[in-house]
Model the fold of this input.
Amino acid sequence: MTVSYWMLILALAIAAFTIRVVGLFAGDAIKSSRFSWMLDELPGLIVVSLVASSLAGQPAETWVAAGVALAVAYFTNHVILTMFVGVTAFGLLIWLGV
Done:
């Protein structure tokens, strides 16, 4: 490898380290501020945003299966059962051609 590759690797390593250190300090600053409640809700918000962006532009079968999975999650609070029922509902909807 040439020197330019090593310089790129070094620059990316420094950038990755800097991002982590800044995140550590920002997290500590938020924990001690009046916005600390946001950190408690952040994991759930991230999951919801990932699911919502995955559903955007999907056919109706996907939305119905997601609704079924949401209902199972609400009533059972069981992750594995929710995934199983959601995938099964999607498969059945596709198989039936609904």
